[in-house]
Batch of 3 targets.
Target 1
Amino acid sequence: MAITTRALAFASRWFDEATVARVFEPLIADWQREWQDASPGRRARVSIRGLAAFICAVIVSSPSLLRTDAPSSVTNRVAVRMARFIALASILLMSPYLASAPESGWRAIILFSLVPSVITVAFPFSMIGAVDAIRRDDTLPSHVERALAAKLGVIALLFMIVFGGFVVQAGNQMFRAAVTRGTPPVRGVRELTTIELMRDPSIAHAGETTNAGGRAAVIRRELSKRAHLAILPVMLLWLRWGMLDRPRRRWYSPLPSWLMTPLVIAMFFLLNFIGINFARSAAVSAAVGVWLPALGFLAIGLITRWWSRAPLIEQGC
């Protein structure tokens, strides 16, 4: 059964040898035996039941991923790689604001208030270098690499939800107050936390699905933007991981992270621009256009995985 072979290969990539031998190998052996003993009319039902049991076993065994420790040399390398990129990108993003600061006395406040926003923008793209740092050591077992990547993805998602939904808003308010030299401005949609936006009464108004929908449309767009940014690190982590699974043929296949990162950034902003303008021209909610970069990266990731498996399919593997 090809499905059992792929299931066992999946378990071997994600779990340690002891878990595979204790949990998955007996389960798949019973699955194969039951399928062989079943009549042709019942084999489809056996396959579905075996797949459901395998999925349940994966869910039950998933906490072991959290207990899988990676070498400190690898985790330190990942942290340094991410911190270096975020610091460099933050400096580049803040430079125009610092150069045009109204007075030298306000520059420190402006710098401090911009930090959350620029970190939120730069953080997702640091995943590309992080994946390369994880997979640099060829001696690291596959399940340790994937456990570290899974934990990094969960941490990145939580970081973006908290930072992009609560911390950035306080920084935006501080920035506006610094620009107006201490005058507290009225809080706009960008200065409201995610919970405050979700509780806003205007979001429940019906029929406000276009760009001209007033406050409800603006809130929907802001919530969609925050949700999109929250999942972007996980999306880029998954995308880069799939690219590195492809067999290396030349220096540009796959592209090195120092070249891949600016290309992904440019593609993100290009797709974001196209999506927002398409939403305006099609008279649909701007929130729909915000998700175009995620859909584009998803399509690229699926194509990359299909391409990497094509040679194996041609060889009958």
Target 2
Amino acid sequence: MLRSLINNVRFIWGHPLNADAKVAAIARFLRLQLAARIGGKPLLVDWIEPLKFVFTNGESGITQNAYCGLHEHDEMLFLLHLLQEGDHFVNIGANVGSYSMLAAGVRNATVIAIEPVPSTFAKLNLNLRINNLQSRVESKQIGVAARDGTARFTVDKNCTNHIVDEDQETADSIEISTETLDGICGKKIPTLIKIDVEGFETEVVNGGEQTLRSPELLAVIMELNESGNRYGYDESSLVARMIDFGFETASYDPFNREITSLNGKCLTSGNTLFIRNKDEIQSRIEQASKIKIDSQQL
């Protein structure tokens, strides 16, 4: 518990969106932690206008947004600067809905939010209902794989739940139906896809060639943090596959709204940005309205 507290404080103190309000951010963290522990119930927290979300201790994937404005600020601001009203966003590994809420609630995009674990899926739908986003977000309790079928998922690892390898045995797992990315998207090609499946990204890509080759798809945010090792997947091969589809790797500076091309995956973040048609993306980013995050306009 002490180590978790120290790690949280370090993350909040060093977060770029807290640069001018470090002490206030730490105070907010302590206040919310105390309120949640004393009350013993989830809290409803105001987020980026007009959004709210349910705050529960232990859900690090979304609670950090309460302390820092945007947990994954580069990627989340890329989404907010790229997407326009009427665009389509597919969120694979949606967890309790941070990215889905931003896309639908702030940018009025349509969303498919995919979360396989039943308890997490219920929390995702609760956040969607609180924000009246059910008409713009289709939530699906499935996994995404190279083919339709079933797979076993862990259920006790919070935001790092993942598919159980066939050689791995665990009592805390459940069998879930799987579909392919191409089957999920059909003819409705998204502008942006986020893939966060704890190492199973290669299988998602293997079932999405038609979608990933479509020129209407401008960008993919993909988690690449060596989790694929648990399945024997090589991230360099996955990056090469995405490049073959017509993407290049890039990083995004949301403060200056600048895209920088990379040679390989991003080494400063657990996520890598894959883009195509850089001129169109840059034009969208430059024209996007500013987002108010606490006292900042970005």
Target 3
Amino acid sequence: MISVLILTRNEEINLPACLASVRWSDDIVVLDSFSTDRTVEIAKASGARVIQRTFDNWAAHQNWANENIRFKNAWVYYSDADEIMMPELRDELLSVTQDMCRKQVAYRVRFKNIFMGKWIKHSSLYPTWVLRFFQPDKIRWEREVNPVPVVNGLIGRLTNHFEHYSFNKGISAWFDKHNRYSDGEALEAMKALRSPDVRERGSAVVNECDAVGHRPSVIVSGIDWRGLIAVRDPARRRKALKELAWRLPCRAGLVFVYLYFVRMGFLDGVAGWRYCRMRAMYEYMIDLKILELRRRKKGLPV
């Protein structure tokens, strides 16, 4: 069987559907950051184990889970509370654990981002590959926000999807969350922009290899140019794209143009138009906070 790890804080709206989609598991662990709503009550009523820990940052929180939670099974599927596992994905996960010939120790999976009752396939940069299924002793995480996996072994890809309902708690909650994310992204951007002209790849992905054994290369001017075309390594490619984007002028506007026109977000209709504008707002929040950090460092008023 497979253990399931769900991270929560005040998720009484999302948690019931998430738990229902993984109730086939014989070991569901809810790592809760001291919720003040009915999250813990709902989790316990479903039969899940509840462990509480104060949230500090995403990488530290997920690393603590891997190192301190005694999972019943060798394989763990990680889920956010606003995600729902599809039956096809469940069946595929179970087949992986039953195949003793597989050499992979972790797997990436795609998801369908749902907004205004529909899958916004184009606006949400589908397919985005995230690492969610793994042997916990073979993985650790780096980066305080949107953490990057460091995997000791081969990584595979799964065919099926989970569904992501990031707007269930409302538009205000989405902006609140991304306001917090933008703090971390601004700090990460400042680190990248301070990087020397030539350096070895950062530790966030230096130990990771994919199923065909690709390895990292040298970064020039703080940008991993080869990473921009690393189709087989989505974590590396996303990191390289961010490092390039942080150096571009009018970045928020360019993000909108890229999502809406280049990635054809207009095919998602009104939902796509609204989502692309919200994503551009998020990127502008990051830009403003980078500016704030720079001005504070120079002793200038904000």
